[in-house]
Amino acid sequence: MSSYSASLQPGKKSVGGGIGRLVVRVFLILQALIVVYPLLWNVLASLKTNAEVMESPWSLPSTLNWDNYVNAFTTAKIGDYMVNSVLVVAMSMAVLLFTAIPTAYVLGRMRFRGRSFLTNFYMAGLFIGGVYVIVPLFIMMNDMSMLDNRFWLSAVYATNSLPFSVFLLTGFMKSIPHDFEEAAAIDGCGYFGTLFRVIMPMARPGIITLIVFSFFDFWNEYVLAMTFITDDAKKTIPIGLSNLMQIQQYATDWGSLFAGLVIVLIPTILVYALLQKKLTQGMMLGGVKG
Fold first, then answer.
1. Three-state SS for 49?
2. By the number of CB atoms within 10 A of the CB, which of 15, 17, 63, 121 ranks highest?
3. Residue 20 neighbours by CB under 8 Å, 6+ apart
């Protein structure tokens, strides 16, 4: 009886629990290696010559061939494509935040006739992807001379992401106590003052989560950009990378191709590394409050 009671004492770890934690850690380590190894191999391949890539793809480079990155920027015009992507992502983010934050504020904080209908209307947009309406959208934009325009491409991106953004931010808006709004009203704040001075700072984790998700979505989008942008000088990085893959495949310049892939990965890695804590915090708060 005493031995049985001792085994149930708090602070003593069971053998089964230790084995379970070990199995989970081994599984997570293997999963991390599966994810990291292709990225590491890509970086090493970008520093090799074409002969080394073909003859010994799994070995380390004999010398660091930085000319591949120079060729990717100059010959393949990766730098120009990146500038276009940065402009499109920045404009898309501005349009999305400008429309999604006030919409989520109205739907999440105010009571008015038709609110449920508008909420369901936005939620229905979650099931309609941009690819499903690409043909009528192309015809409409062609008739209105909106093709080959980076701003209108940004507007399409923002509109396509608006339902999810409103859905995400509405949960954060609803979780904020109404006492803060009442205090702001006593201080003389109107709707916009309350939104910018009270609601948005308190919903910052949700806004940062939306920014990270939207950045990845806009930066990697290919189908809409390929459809609405035909001018090579205005193409974004996914299209430029696809063209680079086709060109370098026939030119057998594999080093420049892998260098281009590494250049494309750098912004996404930096954004995630800088905002990883805020992203985790926002997802946890959204899971608890939503």
1. coil
2. 121
3. none
pTM (2 decimals)? 0.80
Length of the chain: 290
What single-letter DSSP state applies at residue 60? Answer: P
Radius of gyration of the chain, Cα coordinates, nearest whole angstrom:
25
Check residue 196 and report its DSSP letter. I
Our separate counts of H helices and E strands in the chain read 15, 0
Q: How many domains does the chain have?
A: 2
User: Both 42 and 97 in a single domain?
Assistant: no
Query: Does residue 79 form part of some domain?
Result: yes
Digit-coded pLDDT (tens) for 222-274 = 999 999 998 888 889 888 888 777 766 666 678 888 888 888 888 888 888 88
Average pLDDT of the residues in 7-33: 74
Distances (CA, A) of 121 to 110, 128, 148, 162, 217: 17, 11, 30, 12, 22
